[in-house]
From TrEMBL:
Keyword ATP-binding part of the UniProt annotation: yes
Organism: Lentzea aerocolonigenes (Lechevalieria aerocolonigenes)
Key word Lipid metabolism present: no
Protein name: Histidinol phosphatase
A Pfam family recorded for this sequence: ABC_tran
Alphabetical list of SMART domains matching this protein: AAA
Length: 251
């Protein structure tokens, strides 16, 4: 699925939070959204997910403006894992993941064998097979995060928006998750704070600052010392680690 963001502006009364952002994401591409705290990454993701009424501009999935789409139709196209995704209930892990199937079923039909198969597969991909029957409330932060990611996979959408998906995960699960985000045939936009992880797994990086896009391109072009100084106010040194991956050091 292609995602097009055209001159998007959004804000609250008295404050513009995302200003005139344009962004094209090709089918199957993984784009990393980076930028300091408060630069507008989560707000932009919510606008792309169709959860905000835009002040100006448009979001299109495969060329179609989503402004008038009902939530159910958007949920069939695009799954969104928010940073503070929570589930306030007594559900088991497998039940939470089954919520990802909701948009694909009529309201009067319960889950069928195909739904259970898709949920089992999503649990397996996030290394949650052993936790399927555990109550959600008993999970650790990282396990909850992986459960929400499994729910998003179970949605079987062609687009995936992830807001800081690695922030509670241990190193192994961070790498697994980013490998999955980088390799899936889905179109992915992922907000990340770890610049090296973003550089390694994303096809392209988009750098936000004060609600606007200040750089958009391959990691080598976006992660430069002058840009990082301007946007993050840090003295950075960009190099390669012994494995050949882009590495960012700070003075
Ligand atoms: N509904 C809202 N009402 C008022 N201000 C808001 C609202 N949503 C976001 N903001 C403000 O807009 C700015 C951008 O917030 P946003 O969460 O999009 O940033 P972010 O880049 O995702 O930050 P972080 O890296 O800390 O998650 C912040 O200053 C935030 O306080």
């Amino acid at each position: 699925m292609r995602i097009a963001v055209e001159h998007l502006t959004w804000g609250v009364p008295g404050k513009t939070i995302v200003q005139d952002v344009s962004l094209q994401v090709s089918d199957g591409e993984t784009v990393g959204l980076i930028g300091p705290n408060g630069s507008g990454k989560s707000s932009l993701l919510r606008c792309i997910a169709g959860l905000r009424t835009l002040t100006a501009g448009a979001v299109r999935y495969d060329g179609v403006d989503i402004a008038a789409w009902p939530a159910r139709e958007r949920a069939r196209k695009l799954a969104f894992v928010e940073q503070t995704a929570d589930t306030d209930s007594d559900l088991r892990v497998a039940d939470v993941v089954m919520l990802g199937r909701t948009a694909h079923r009529s309201r009067w039909r319960g889950p069928d064998a195909a739904d259970h198969e898709i949920v089992a597969e999503a649990l397996g991909r996030l290394d949650l097979g052993g936790l399927a029957d555990r109550p959600w409330k008993q999970l650790s932060g990282g396990e909850r995060q992986r459960t929400h990611l499994a729910r998003a996979l179970a949605q079987r959408t062609s687009g995936l928006l992830l807001d800081e998906p690695t922030n509670h995960l241990d190193v192994r699960h961070q790498l697994d998750l980013m490998e999955l985000a980088g390799r899936t045939p889905q179109t992915v936009v992922v907000a990340l704070h770890d610049l090296a992880l973003a550089a390694r797994y994303c096809d392209r990086l988009v750098l936000m600052h004060r609600g606007t896009v200040v750089a958009d391109g391959p990691a080598e072009e976006v992660l430069t010392a002058p840009l990082l100084r301007e946007v993050f106010d840090v003295d950075a040194e960009i190099g390669r680690d012994s494995l050949g991956h882009l590495a960012v050091g700070y003075r």
